Automatic annotation (TrEMBL):
Domain of life from the UniProt record: Bacteria
Keyword terms: ATP-binding, Nucleotide-binding
Domain AAA residues, every copy: 20-149
Pfam family, one: AAA_14
Protein's name according to its UniProt entry: ATP-binding protein
Source organism of the structure: Senegalimassilia anaerobia
Xref: InterPro entries: AAA_14 (IPR041682), DUF4143 (IPR025420), P-loop_NTPase (IPR027417)
GO MF annotation: an example: ATP binding
Transmembrane segments: none
Residue ranges annotated for the DUF4143 domain, each copy included: 229-369
């Protein structure tokens, strides 16, 4: 088991606190394995096995658990007589009223609680107010490029030693970082697949399984959860999903999508389209990024862009045609910024745009992303918006192809591999 240290450290930081630790993210991004990592960490600290209890809610053993009362009674029965237990609940979102059980266990039992879920409904329902202020969310993603190299068993030069494009494997073989990056951009970072050399046929079958589970189990059956609106038209849902995947990084709107579907003979409207998009975001398949007026320093109500959780899922939805590679590149940079704990917005300037405005406490940077700017006009277009920003924060252009000065008029030019590996 390859440890994803950043996420494990986040769990350890809140170990033995009164807060419920909730791990969220798209299916098969590694949430269950993270709980296993935490179990191993606790066992290494000397916690005996009988105090480490896991409840996998999608297993046949627990399939009959229908509501929070049954869940509470089951857990209380298993922890009876045990001092300070550690409770791990995997994929809890389908248990109606789960928050009541978790809150009661938190109050009634001497325990430390960890929960995973593959749908934002886990923390957005009215019942979730029961644990409001009493939980911490660890939002998990598929692998970053650095993690992907670790899973592939490739060693590479760290920060301060840029220049080499070679990654070495344990068996003595090697590959260029650029070739591994091309694989990552095409096949993405779901952990199971990253443990081996990419294979398109295997990747397609695995991603089909993830996609069908998200569509059928997480979205189409959502009405079975009390108070949730049903998604009634699978065809429309999948068409909207395909549209968003094909338009990552493009400014879009519900009206535009509805109009496109109507032109193709699919009956829908803006309200339905907006609702269906929200379910795809709720399932962590896409993220919506708001536009930010850089000069006015305020969020804009209109526009916005969508980015997909994993480039490999985009390839699957695109039938592996490898289209819009520049947009995929932008998506990878967005996912990296989120992994690095930045709040990310799309920057708006009058007559221009900055791909990302990334902020966290006492830090801000403006980021442009481009495939290639060896053409003089392309370089001018990418640099111009950054030159118009008058503050002192970092301004970066992330580029995939070509060789450039490290700095042009105070703007950093960074190769995408160096950016993703923090070199």
């Amino acid at each position: 088991m390859i440890v994803r240290q950043k996420y494990l450290d986040k769990l350890i930081a809140f170990q033995d606190t009164d807060l419920v630790k909730v791990v969220t993210g798209i299916r098969r991004c590694g949430k269950s394995t993270l709980l296993d990592m935490m179990r191993e960490h606790l066992a290494a600290q000397g916690v005996p096995e009988n105090r480490l209890l896991t409840f996998k809610m999608e297993s046949m053993e627990l399939a009959s658990i229908a509501d929070y009362r049954e869940l509470y009674d089951l857990v209380v029965g298993r922890i009876a007589g045990q001092p300070h237990t550690y409770l791990f609940f995997d994929e809890l979102q389908n248990v109606e009223g789960w928050e009541k059980a978790i809150n009661a266990l938190r109050v009634d039992a001497d325990c430390d609680i960890y929960v995973t879920g593959s749908n934002a409904f886990l923390l957005s329902s009215e019942l979730a107010t029961l644990i409001s202020g009493r939980y911490v969310e660890i939002a998990m993603q598929p692998l970053t490029f650095a993690e992907y190299l670790d899973f592939r068993g490739a060693s590479w030069q760290p920060a301060g030693k840029t220049g080499s494009d070679i990654a070495l494997f344990a068996d003595g073989s090697f590959a260029t970082l650029s070739s591994l990056f091309d694989q990552y951009r095409m096949f993405g970072g779901f952990p199971y697949l990253a443990l081996q050399e990419p294979n398109e046929a295997k990747h397609r079958e695995y991603l089909r399984s993830i996609y069908q589970t998200i569509i059928v189990r997480d979205i189409m059956t959502r009405a079975q959860r009390k108070g949730l609106r049903a998604v009634s038209n699978r065809s429309v849902l999948e068409r909207i999903c395909a549209f968003l995947a094909d338009n990552i990084g493009n400014e879009t709107s519900s009206n535009k999508i509805a109009g496109t579907l109507k032109a193709d003979g699919e009956s829908t409207n803006r309200a339905t389209t907006d609702f269906y998009i929200s379910t795809l975001v709720e399932a962590y398949l896409f993220n919506r990024v708001q536009r930010y007026d850089i000069k006015g320093r305020e969020l804009l109500k209109t526009g916005g862009k969508y980015y997909i959780a994993d480039a490999g899922m985009r390839s699957y939805l695109d039938s592996y045609r490898n289209t819009n590679t520049g947009r995929v590149l932008e998506n990878l940079v967005y996912n990296q910024l989120v992994f690095d704990d930045y709040d990310v917005l799309v920057g708006h300037l009058r007559g221009g745009e900055v791909d990302f405005v990334a902020t966290k406490p006492r830090q801000k940077m403006y980021v442009q992303v481009t495939e290639d700017m060896r053409d003089e006009e392309t370089m001018r277009r990418e640099l111009a918006p950054l030159k118009r920003i008058g503050d002192e924060y970092r301004k970066i252009v992330v580029v995939a192809e070509g060789t450039y000065p490290a700095d042009i008029d105070g703007i950093e030019i960074v190769n995408v591999i160096d950016f993703l590996l923090h070199r």
